[in-house]
Structures are given as C-alpha cells and as structure tokens.
Amino acid sequence: ESFWNELNVSFVDTTTYQLHYDEYSVNQWQKLFPADRYPVLALKGAPASYPMLAEHRQLQKYMTWSEQIMDEVRQHQKKLFNNEPYIGMLSNELFRMKSMTAIFLHRNSFTK
Known about the structure:
By secondary structure, the protein is mainly α. The chain has 2 domains: about 1-60, no CATH class; about 65-110, no CATH class. Helix content is about 40%, strand content about 0%. It starts with a helix and ends in a 6-residue tail after the last helix. Keywords: Endoplasmic reticulum, Glycoprotein, Glycosyltransferase, Transferase. InterPro entries: POFUT1.
C-alpha cells in the first residue's frame, strides 16, 4: 500500500506533473499550483529526479532549511548519534563505491 494509505489520508484529487529545476518547469508549476489556491501539496516522492543531474548541482547552494526543520535535525542527531559525526549511506549499489571513496577521503574532516 502507499505511504498515504497507511496514514489513512485520502485526497480530493490527484494529478501527475514532472517537475524539473529549469525555469520553464518552475513557471508551469506555479501556474498549475498557485500557493494561494493550493497551500498544501503532498508529493509521493522527491520533486525532482534522483540522482540529481550534474548540471543542477550548483543549485544546491541555494537550498536552505527552515529553523523548525533544523531544530528537528539537531534533536535527531543528539538522540540517535549522541552528537557524534555520522554518514548517510546510499543503498543504491551504483553509487556505493563513490560514497565509500568520499568517506575515505573526507572521514577526518567531519567536526562535532
């Protein structure tokens, strides 16, 4: 069953839209789902392709999390990892070696 069914959430309507990072897609998304008419959207997955395309990686520097989300992250870090450094591992075998290489190269650069 889907994630939403397990939470007993039902929806009035559903639509499919392939969202990308390019300006045209963002403008189309904003026309289709204006925030004043659709204050809440439930997505069944990430609103972009995964893994991210190389040409979109530079956009990550503009992503910021709200203080509420960051507080939640800090609480999880404290509870689950005792504020120790940790690494999130990809389960996709294609990226596992890249992740392992990154861990090896950067493992001494983590700070508490």
